[in-house]
């Protein structure tokens, strides 16, 4: 019997690959309960007694058969019963000790250091089963030869890493696009940490830096030759008692008179249910700003985290003035801060004064340093003394156009062209102005040549302008020159009319003279 148990224990300890493939406990189950394991232990004791009884019966039948006191069939029946009892005992033994080892993630807490870097504190525990005292169930080593439970369920060579969850990665992005991270990619620093040995019921806490800020991730576990991934939602450590603020865009360019929008991410590291104020410092008063809810566009002055919500997104939108001044200079970076802080704390700060970066860093609140680069805008305006002319058939139109840069940035290669009625021609001198500084203008001569067979009526010549400023096309507005064509004078009719008038006047004069002579 002892030889049998020794061989069985040897097979159990060294044929681990086969045992590792046994079904693992369902998710959320820490391990077999003491009651379940006690029942299996008692079942093993019962089957051990049955095995001993079957062996004794087989031995008696063997002796009787050797002395020819019973037929061979009775001995074979007893022998088969003994072998079946052996199989039942082996199955119960494997059920008790061949369970797959279990390493659980007890907690995964995300926290932030004062410099803004994010970390995760992961605690793992060996939940491979409950260690039972055999004596409580009336079992001793003399009853059943059992191995050391603590030794068998001890986990060795444990490695832990944090990986990107598939739901947060961008599976459609290619590596060349640089968007997203491949699902399953390691996002922890260091990539993995090891635990040489972990006894049953023991815990180990590991601290990882985050290479990517996420709310959920996969804890990769490798132990006893098996791999196991656990997807977890990160808890937030409230010890910092702040709301963290981060920005996807930290430096933007914007045209004067335009807008700039920063996408902001807020994350709660506090248990306070009070609202938090949203403020900016070091932003010139000439630049208006709004904190906006991204979906509805509603303006926000405070934020609150409802129950179960630990992160929110919002936007900071800046509205730039049309002109520059001593605070807003073209192409010069303008640095300011966005803050999220306790409402009472915000009332104690004078937001109208300038703060040094060190002063802002010293504030206990969520903060992000942002940068804005104002850019000038080139604008072209085309004007003329009059955009309405009257000509007769056979005449041409000569027009002086004034092309002016009314913007705040140099404009290059201003090209003037026209869109003409059928068979009409235009001559523009010069048709391209190489450079126009802000508020600079230049006169361009436009000559409109109607066709020789033009009819009487109104015609429209569109004046189009194209220009480049800062390697971008300058938006321009087309102008229209209206030309009214009249018929040429009729010389013969005019001469006849004049002759008729002269004859009429001469007749009146002659008639008057005759009257006076009477």
List keywords for this structure.
518 residues; alpha+beta; elongated; single chain; 4 domains; Immunoglobulin-like
Kindly describe this structure.
- By secondary structure, this protein is α+β, with helices and mostly antiparallel strands.
- The chain has four domains: 2-97; 103-236, Sandwich (Immunoglobulin-like); 240-375, Sandwich (Immunoglobulin-like); 380-486, Immunoglobulins (Immunoglobulin-like, Sandwich), CATH 2.60.40.10.
- 23% of the residues lie in helices and 38% in strands.
- It is built from eight helices and 29 strands.
- It has helices spanning 2-14, 16-20, 34-66, 72-97, 149-152, 343-347, 357-362, 491-517; strands at 103-112, 118-126, 155-164, 188-189, 193-198, 203-210, 216-223, 226-233, 235-236, 242-247, 251-255, 259-269, 276-281, 288-292, 299-300, 302-303, 311-319, 334-342, 366-375, 380-383, 388-392, 397-405, 411-419, 425-429, 432-436, 441-449, 457-469, 472-473, 479-486.
- Strands 21, 23, 25, 27, 28 and 29 form a six-stranded mixed β-sheet that branches.
- Strand 7 and strand 8 form a beta hairpin.
- Helix 3 (34-66) packs antiparallel against helix 4.
- It is elongated and about 195 Å long.
- Mean pLDDT is 81; it is low at 1-34 and 169-180.
How would you briefly describe this protein structure?
The protein has 518 residues and is of the alpha+beta class. The protein has helices at 2-14, 16-20, 34-66, 72-97, 149-152, 343-347, 357-362, 491-517; strands spanning 103-112, 118-126, 155-164, 188-189, 193-198, 203-210, 216-223, 226-233, 235-236, 242-247, 251-255, 259-269, 276-281, 288-292, 299-300, 302-303, 311-319, 334-342, 366-375, 380-383, 388-392, 397-405, 411-419, 425-429, 432-436, 441-449, 457-469, 472-473, 479-486. The strands form 6 sheets. Strands 21, 23, 25, 27, 28 and 29 form a 6-stranded mixed sheet that branches. It has a 5-stranded mixed sheet with strand order 4-6-2-1-9, with no helix packed on it.
């Amino acid at each position: 019997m002892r030889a049998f148990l020794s061989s069985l224990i040897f097979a159990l300890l060294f044929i681990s690959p086969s045992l590792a493939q046994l079904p693992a406990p369902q998710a959320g189950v820490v391990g077999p309960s003491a009651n379940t394991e006690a029942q299996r232990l008692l079942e093993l004791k019962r089957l051990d007694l049955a095995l001993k009884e079957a062996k004794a019966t087989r031995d008696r039948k063997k002796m009787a058969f050797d002395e020819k006191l019973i037929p061979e069939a009775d001995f074979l029946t007893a022998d088969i019963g003994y072998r079946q009892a052996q199989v039942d005992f082996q199955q119960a033994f494997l059920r008790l000790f061949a369970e797959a080892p279990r390493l659980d993630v007890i907690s995964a807490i995300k926290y932030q250091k004062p410099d803004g870097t994010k970390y995760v504190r992961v605690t793992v525990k060996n939940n491979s089963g409950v260690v039972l005292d055999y004596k409580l169930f009336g079992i001793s080593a003399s009853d059943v030869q059992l191995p050391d439970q603590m030794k068998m369920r001890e986990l060795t060579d444990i490695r832990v890493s944090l990986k990107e969850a598939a739901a947060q990665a961008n599976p459609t992005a290619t590596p060349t696009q640089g968007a997203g991270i491949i699902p399953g990619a390691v996002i922890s620093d260091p990539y993995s940490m090891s635990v040489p040995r972990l006894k049953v019921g023991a815990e180990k806490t590991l601290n990882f830096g985050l290479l990517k800020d996420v709310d959920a991730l996969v804890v990769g576990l490798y132990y006893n030759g098996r791999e196991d991934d656990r997807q977890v939602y990160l808890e937030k450590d409230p010890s910092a008692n702040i709301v963290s603020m981060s920005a996807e865009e930290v430096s933007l360019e914007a045209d004067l008179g335009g807008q700039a929008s920063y996408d902001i991410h807020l994350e709660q590291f506090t248990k306070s249910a009070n609202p938090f104020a949203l403020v900016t410092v070091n932003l010139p008063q000439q630049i208006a700003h709004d904190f906006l809810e991204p979906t509805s566009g509603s303006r926000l002055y405070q934020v609150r985290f409802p129950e179960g919500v630990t992160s929110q997104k919002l936007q900071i939108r800046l509205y730039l003035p049309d002109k520059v001044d001593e605070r807003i200079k073209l192409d010069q970076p303008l640095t300011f801060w966005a803050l999220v802080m306790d409402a009472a704390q915000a009332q104690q700060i004078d937001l109208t004064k300038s703060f040094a970066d060190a002063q802002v860093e010293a504030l206990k609140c969520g903060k992000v340093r942002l940068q804005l680069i104002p850019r000038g805008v080139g604008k072209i305006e085309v004007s003329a003394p009059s955009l309405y002319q009257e000509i007769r058939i056979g005449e041409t139109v000569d027009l002086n156009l004034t092309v002016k840069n009314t913007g705040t940035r140099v404009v290059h290669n201003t090209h003037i062209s026209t869109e003409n009625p059928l068979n009409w021609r235009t001559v523009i001198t010069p048709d391209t102005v190489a450079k126009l500084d802000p508020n600079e203008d230049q006169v361009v001569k436009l000559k409109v040549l109607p066709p020789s067979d033009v009819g009487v009526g109104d015609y429209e010549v569109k004046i189009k302008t194209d220009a480049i400023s800062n390697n971008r096309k300058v938006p321009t507005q087309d102008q229209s020159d209206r030309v009214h064509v009249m018929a040429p004078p009729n010389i013969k009719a005019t001469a006849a009319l004049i002759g008729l008038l002269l004859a009429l006047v001469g007749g009146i004069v002659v008639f008057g003279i005759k009257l006076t002579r009477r």
